[in-house]
Description:
Layout: E1 5-8, E2 11-12, E3 22-27, E4 30-31, E5 42-47, E6 50-51, E7 57-58, E8 61-66, E9 69-70, E10 78-79, E11 82-91, E12 101-110, E13 121-131, E14 140-145, E15 148-150, E16 159-164, E17 167-169, E18 178-183, E19 186-188, E20 197-202, E21 205-207, E22 216-225, E23 236-241, E24 244-249, E25 253-258, E26 260-265, E27 276-280
Parallel strand pairs: 1-3, 2-4, 3-5, 4-6, 5-8, 6-9, 7-10, 8-11, 9-11, 11-12, 12-13, 13-14, 13-15, 14-16, 15-17, 16-18, 17-19, 18-20, 19-21, 20-22, 21-22, 22-23, 23-25, 24-26, 25-27
Amino acid sequence: MNCKKEYRQEYLTGERALFMGKDLRIYDTIFADGESPLKESRNIELFGCMFKWKYPLWYSKNIIAKDCAWFDMARAGVWYTENITAEDCVIEAPKNFRRCRGVTLKNVSFSDAAETLWSCDGVKLENVMAKGDYFAMNSSDLNVSGFTLYGNYSFDGVKNAEISDSKLLTKDAFWNSENITVRDSFISGEYLGWNAKNLTLINCTIESLQGMCYIDNLVMKNCKLINTTLAFEYSTVDAVIDSKIDSVINPSGGSITADSIGELILERDKIDPSKTKITVRDNA
């Protein structure tokens, strides 16, 4: 990036302090009170900067932020922005990253991730920690690794996501999602995956009450289900489970293989039991 002008250790106040800034390299600068300091900016590099007020990066393009901080009042910080990379950053403010395209976050922590990463397209997360509900709602084309989440209703409506080596403490995850693959991860939360299409879980450990229900094309390979009850209701499923399943209720079709099943509920007035092949290894 060819930056022509540098700012160092500035203390910037007032609305739109660097409005429409272009080709800037900014070091150790505080964006204090004043909305939208970098609105409509282009080709900006930020190093060790602090955002302390609302809407700092809206309608911006080609942004790199390293070792930066978004404080609590820097809410709704990055909206309608294209091609932004944030690395080694801390983000305290909620509602960050909305309707953005080309978002890369590496070694980033969100202490209040409520309504964060909504309706974004082309997202890469690496070693990100987030605490907050409704993370990543309605986003698409996500590549996620080393992600830790504390918050419910995550990935609602997400399309085309690959998630690996992650830990998700989240109920109602992946509702209304489509084309999701999760590998080598831990998920704990009630009602996992309802109304999803093409949800694939590989080498995952899962705890869920009434998890994996109402899913069209659920695939599970070499997964463990711990304290998971009333699973697979009205789902079409191809599941190979390397553990006991506490209970299964009314799958719509497919196949289920497990070490054992504590309770199998097949109600003929609700589903056709012959459409699901169930295999029990009995190695428990």
